[in-house]
TrEMBL record:
This is histidine kinase. Residues 41-260 form the Histidine kinase domain. The gene is phoR. The keyword Cell wall biogenesis/degradation does not apply. It is an enzyme of class 2 (transferase). Keywords: Kinase, Membrane, Phosphoprotein, Transferase, Transmembrane, Transmembrane helix, Two-component regulatory system. Its EC number is 2.7.13.3. The chain holds residues 86 to 358 of 363 of the full protein. The keyword Transmembrane applies. It comes from the Bacteria.
Amino acid sequence: IRESNPLKTINDEIFVYVTKKQKEIDELKKLELFRREFLADVSHEFKTPIFAAQGFIHTLLDGAMDDEKVRERFLRKAANNLDSLDVLVKDLLVLSQMETGDIKMNIIPTDLRKLTLGIFSRLEHIAKNRNVSLKVKPDDMPEVWIKADADRMEQVMLNLIENAIKYGHDNGKVIVHFSESKKYIEVEVKDNGPGIPHEHLNRIFERFYRIDKSRSKEIGGTGLGLAIVKHILNAHDTKIAVMSKPEKGTTFSFKLEKAYHQQLPEAKTDDVV
Ligand code: ADP
């Protein structure tokens, strides 16, 4: 029998301890970097609309107020910038609550088909402006009951459908497609827009990540929509996937547990965008 070497045992223990502590330090450093980057991003995002609104208001105070047309135009622009700021603050609040786990999930049977149709009517005006058609498939389907927090799921569907309209083509199509397996409902939100270049695909879920910053801002994006979607779905123990082909379109998909056992009608062949 080989005698154990006490010195070696102590050395091994010290090694394990130091490695563990080093890991903890690395983790803390990463968190600190994340915090600093986040603050820098947030300040930057706040600065843009504040600076713009300030500019319009000061120009008015400096004399532009006398011209009625300029007055109306500048006030409108100042108001639009303050509206963007409001959306940004609300999105940030949701995101930070999701990240710190402060939101209590209220998981109940939720009819995702009805919820989707409600979102379609909320977004009807922007879809009409761009002549985009909105469809749920299969169209002869009854209800689609899943286990979810209905308010949070509404936010997920709203962000995905709104993005599909905003970043799709004029005269395009947006389809929300449901299919089922034994335990799950698979949800797909598809558009036939310009698609997302491959190199951006796994970064679009990061907060403030936008492919085309100026276009996203122009159409009212905060850059937080998909980060919020990812967090909400994580809280439902599921993950979002994205598939995109240049000029063919983009499909976001995820699955959720069924609330009841039910059979959906078979999808038809024209369900593909
Ligand atoms: P935003 O508020 O800018 O829309 P999101 O987090 O919702 O932020 O989306 C991040 C970026 O991903 C968008 O700025 C856009 O460039 C891209 N994107 C999202 N959805 C689509 C889509 N359906 N088609 C093409 N690009 C998309």
